[in-house]
Amino acid sequence: MHVSCNNCGIEDLLEFSKNVDEVFLEFLSRYDKGLVTEKGLSEGLKDEGIVRAESEIKSMIGKNKPDKITEEILFSKKDYVSQYKVLSNPEPKMGCKVEDMGLDESITEHLKGLGIEQFYKFQEDAIGEITYGENVVIEAPTASGKTEAFLIPVIQRIKKDANDGNVFAIFVYPTKALARDQFPKIKKFAQKIRVKVDVFDGDTKLSDRREIIENLPQILVTNFDVLHYHMWHQTKFSSILSSTRILVTDEAHVYSGIFGSNVHYIIKRLKRICTNKLQFVAASATLEDAKEFCEKLFGEDMQKIQGSGKKGQTDFAMLFPSLRTQRALMVELTKKLTQKKHKTMVFNNSHLNSELLAIQAKKQKVNIKVHRAGLMANYRTSVEKQFKEDMLDAISCTPTLELGIDVGNVDCVISSTIPVNRLIQRIGRAARKGQRGYAFLALGNDPISQYYKNHPDDYFEDTEKTYIDPKNPFVEEFQVLAMACDRPISKHELKEHQEVIEHHIIKENLKEFNNRIIPNFDKINPLLNEYSIRGIGKSIDIFLNGKKVGDRILPIALEELHKDAIYFLAGIRYKVKEFDYPRKNYAKIEKIPRDHPYYTKSLTEEWPTIETVFERRVANGVEVAFCKLHIEKKVYGYVNIELGQEVAQGEKVLLDTPLEYDFVTKGIVFHAPRPLKVMEESEDEEYTEASGYHATEHVVIEGSNMITGGVSQDLGGISLGTSGLIFIYDGAIGGSGASKALYDRFEKALERSMFIVKECPCKNEAGCPRCTFSYRCGNNNEYLHKYSALEILERINNGEKTELVDPTEGDRPLV
């Protein structure tokens, strides 16, 4: 703990044992003995990498002129300042004048009425290519005019080509909330040019649905969930989709992982039922590999159009919490900014962290509420409205608010660790009105954050890699069934899915009739009704006082909603009093006292079995295979973790009846070399070896985090005792593509993992949350050995060779 006096400047660094009074008494004792001087510990703190020297911070600032609040944070000596810079964008490149674009006169007149005399260059390019009929992906920063870049050419095409009475274009958004947020803006623009726009989603009233179907809009705003449902049910709504000429997909980066794999098939199904060849337009603020990703998503060649940024500047600081937790840093930043009347968005990377931050910020008298998936839609809408109308000072949110939902004026963005291109999108929410913006990246008490503390330039190189896996066997299996429901499959088509089709025929899910393949509706209706395109697996409904208040998808629900689990909902903690699985799939929760000191984390056991090997190669000297895996998992208990702690080892409690489930996924397996030197110095060689492999598994997952696009939260891991076998797998049923991204970049992950352990200053044999601990660890972060892991990683990076062999069968190859 860092103890200092604001008046005289004396300071000291002392061991903290959960008792602030003891620390302060020790500080006074050391002062009386002359061990603390007014000169302070600046050099010592600098040498230990705890804070930056003032001269280094001033060098970072250079000729920039941060305001008082930014200076106060940079020179607080509470955190290590890894990076400070002013993010400013050059003037956007300007394009042609509106009247020179050759647009319909009604569009030109409307734009001039809005005061728009000239397009940005990327808008000019997008309008030209889309009007010409090309498939286009628009990559441009938040609030730069992407909507206009695709809306104007679509309206131009409608005015020029469309026959009245048909749906010409479908605008798809990843969530109902975003679609509803964008709809008024689109409708207002289109109505002036006499183009009809309607929104059709799960919240559209039955009477409005009838009106839409009877009086078709030319532009339909919806989401992929609606398209999926109505196509396979062959509803009246699905019949109106066949005239579609253009599919516009906004926020395309969201369609990564399982969701994106399903969307790939939904697009393929839409192509099947459309009478015209579909044109595709995608837009995103964050896609680094926009062209390649969208070509895989849409199954078509795409042109990329790059947009320029907004005007204005934002003070940006990357802070590492040397002397406190990440959450404590984020709470203090939130408090400081909101006290100065700066409206603040705080981005967290998980449901739990968004809830914990709001709870702790409220204790500091911050006017803040939670916004995340899993909360009821009306609650989220209420939070957005309150923030927009200045009734809230701050929102603690998950990536749900990365999307373009309008929450009004934002001055400051505080974010936990994410890939830099997504951080830039989050920062883009701030200072849209030209005021000075503030942005803080709060590094965490975790391995990758410690790496970035020491290598901040690498952070700006680690752009997100989006990924989908169309060959996920479960996605393919369900989507082929849906295709047959959309429209019978003729004998000559879908040859690439022939094996799956034959499998369904044998199981009598599909049947042959008049040389066509048709669905056996009675048998497959229940299967398709239970299927979620946003994640494979059923959901557990959450009830409070008999009313549904949320849901959580399986299998993660078993780890968060078991009996007696503490569950967070809208900034309030509840206890699970009843959990019914697998019979009825619900959880009943009840409120607990505010001063309840703990939250819970589940304890799990896992066992992997290799079913198929897809690829194998040698990384450095280590043989690694990419496989289909069968994972057996058991939730057997939980630990109570004290509020305010990040990754800790808590008090264990065993469940009366363990919860078991198993699933098939994809992952990698490699054989780590033995840590011979550390084992020789150890009294218990077996413990040292097994604990080294366990720690290596943790560090490789965390070390891969930003290399693979921030997907470590999508990965699970297993180390098998002293065998040296380490498995890292996709947490999503069937596989999401995350482990394949790791497989492709495995050398870089191994090198980074070594530096994470090597550069961690902790002296603990087991390591600490900044090197070997993991908040996802199913066995309470026990059986870890930092120095053993370091030797293993050094041996790997030095090129020591290993092969995948079965430890129970001598030298027989494992795969």
From TrEMBL:
Its EC number is 3.6.4.13. Keywords: ATP-binding, Helicase, Hydrolase, Nucleotide-binding. The keyword DNA repair does not apply. Pfam families: DEAD, Helicase_C, MZB. GO terms for molecular function: 3'-5' DNA helicase activity; ATP binding; hydrolase activity; nucleic acid binding; RNA helicase activity. It comes from the Archaea. SMART domains: DEXDc, HELICc. One of its GO terms (biological process) is nucleotide-excision repair. It is an enzyme of class 3 (hydrolase). PROSITE patterns: HELICASE_ATP_BIND_1 (PS51192), HELICASE_CTER (PS51194). Residues 127-305 form the Helicase ATP-binding domain. This is ATP-dependent RNA helicase RhlE protein. It comes from Marine Group I thaumarchaeote SCGC AAA799-P11.
